[in-house]
Amino acid sequence: MDIYDLADLYADQLIHSSDFMRLLELKELIKKELSNKIIAFKTAEAKYLEAKSYGNYHPDLKEYQRKFTVAKTNLYSEAYVKEYIQLERKIQSSLNADFNDLKKSISNKFKLNQF
């Protein structure tokens, strides 16, 4: 078995894992059921970033920042989003650990850090 076969096997195991499958399921649920909150979040974020680009002297900066914070809190407090973020972190942690193991097996001169 060559390195490409191992990489394919690793990728297949990852994308067919229960955590990854649930992540994809949550992604669809979030898009379907929380679309209004996502739109509110993205709109508030765009207005805030635009106002912020003019500097701290924009007359509506604080109001846009407050609206952005409220929209973000509303979206990120949803159970689906919380679970999605938790699974995303779990998968990323596993990838980081595997990547660090791979680096250690090649040479001890690599720094062990995240992607």
Structure description:
The mean pLDDT is 92. Helix 2 runs antiparallel to helix 5 and helix 3 runs antiparallel to helix 4. The longest helix is centred in the C-terminal third of the chain and has 28 residues, at 79-106. This protein is 80% helix and 0% strand. The radius of gyration is 20 Å and the shape is elongated. The chain has 115 residues and is mainly alpha-helical. It has helices at 3-15, 18-33, 35-53, 61-76, 79-106. It is built from five helices and no strands.
Sum up the overall morphology in one term: elongated
Oligomer: single chain
- What is the helical fraction, as a range of percent? over 70%
- Return residue spans where pLDDT drops below 50 for at least 5 consecutive residues: none
Measured on Cα atoms, how large is the radius of gyration?
Answer: 20 Å
Mean pLDDT: 92
Strand-helix topology:
Elements: H1 3-15, H2 18-33, H3 35-53, H4 61-76, H5 79-106
Helix pairs in contact: 2-5, 3-4
